[in-house]
Design a protein that fits this description.
binds adenosine-5'-tetraphosphate, mainly alpha, Rossmann fold, 15 helices, Tyrosyl-Transfer RNA Synthetase
Length: 329
């Protein structure tokens, strides 16, 4: 079977350089490998409190950023998760095949819920991986490009697919997470031991930041003692993170990046990293603005919903039949 590639991003806040390097930057290339389904995970965004207007605005922004990544909407299906009801329907079935113990071991749930009072933790946050597994299964996706933090959820989806296929026959496609070699986990500039994240925006570079802001943030990024520009995550997490950002943007290896900066002072190194990030983001930001103004995302999302519904409803039917639901055509 030809490759099916699926990835989603939650419209939970301002997109970061982590989201760009981890996923957005690579989307265009993926379209050469098979049929791509890219979606705005708006149902997932509801798992933590969010203002309705903010969610709407973030969803529009995300659609524009997806398109700004250079994907051809005629060859790619870009859609809103909430515009395909099969996600919620498959979720209702799949939640019976994943277990409390498995879900409570998910690192992202532990991280997010540890900052909340137990009475404020929604059921949706806990069962997030069930919906994510349903997202993947619906499109018979075999390749799932993600940042490092999402790999555990894809692994759980693989367990679920095995479980269902063992019980009902080979009805589901086995997915596989794919991470970039360099940049699968970009860290915060102010605390390089923490992931750069939309919902914890300290030390983030946002995709909408002006060049001067980006430069200022990189120039004041936390560095480490010593003066050598060297990749050493344990002893030099700040410098290692900046080297990773540089290498990922330039699409070179960490070793190649290190070689470029032999003998550089930290200040000059940071200046080169800032130049690289700004050069990469400026044209991307210009495309984003043009797409936002032209509102071309509206038609793309409409067409995307039609194609996504077509594919997803077929898989849903297959699962409904297999588990014994009486599907009357
Ligand atoms: N720092 C990062 N480095 C590399 N990849 C990253 N991703 C996120 N942060 C980094 C990848 O971006 C995709 C979209 O993620 P998501 O919106 O579904 O949620 P997330 O993984 O939880 O990302 P955030 O930015 O941390 O969002 P919030 O704060 O809302 O939870 C994923 O493939 C992710 O791995």
């Amino acid at each position: 079977m030809a490759n099916r590639i699926l990835t989603g991003i939650k419209p939970t806040g301002k997109l970061t350089l982590g989201n760009y390097i981890g996923v957005l930057k690579n989307l265009k290339r993926e379209t050469e490998r098979g049929e791509c389904f890219y979606f705005i995970a708006d149902l997932h965004a509801l798992t933590l409190p969010i203002e309705p207007e903010e969610l709407r605005q973030n969803s529009i922004d995300l659609a524009c950023f997806y398109l700004a990544s250079g994907i051809d909407p005629k060859k790619t299906t870009l859609f809103l998760q909430s515009s395909v009801s099969a996600h919620a329907e498959l979720n209702a079935i799949m939640q019976n095949y994943l277990y409390m113990g498995e879900l409570s071991r998910m690192t992202q749930f532990k991280d997010k819920s540890s900052k909340m009072k137990e009475s404020a933790i929604g059921l949706g946050l806990f069962s997030y991986p069930v919906l994510m597994a349903s997202d993947i299964i619906l499109y018979d996706a075999n390749i799932i490009p993600v940042g490092e933090d999402q790999v555990q959820h894809v692994e759980l989806t693989r367990d679920l697919v095995n479980r269902i296929n063992n019980r009902y026959g080979e009805i589901l496609t086995m997915p596989k997470a794919e991470m970039r070699k360099v940049g699968a986990r970009i860290m915060s500039l102010s605390d390089p031991t923490k992931k750069m994240s939309k919902s914890d925006p300290k030390g983030d570079i946002f995709l909408k930041d002006e060049p001067a802001v980006i430069r200022k943030k990189i120039m004041s990024a936390v560095t480490d003692s010593g003066s050598e520009v060297k990749y050493d995550v344990e002893n030099k997490p700040g410098i290692s993170n900046l080297l990773t950002i540089y290498a990922a943007i330039k699409e070179i290896s960490i070793e190649e990046a290190e070689k470029e900066f032999v003998g550089f002072r930290y200040g000059d190194f940071k200046k080169a990293v800032a130049d690289a990030v700004i050069n990469e983001l400026e044209p991307f930001q210009a495309r984003y603005k043009q797409i936002l103004e032209s509102k071309e995302y509206e038609n793309v999302l409409k067409q995307g919903a039609i194609r996504a519904n077509e594919v997803a409803s077929k898989t849903l039917k297959r699962v409904q039949k297999a588990v014994g639901l009486l599907t009357i055509e």
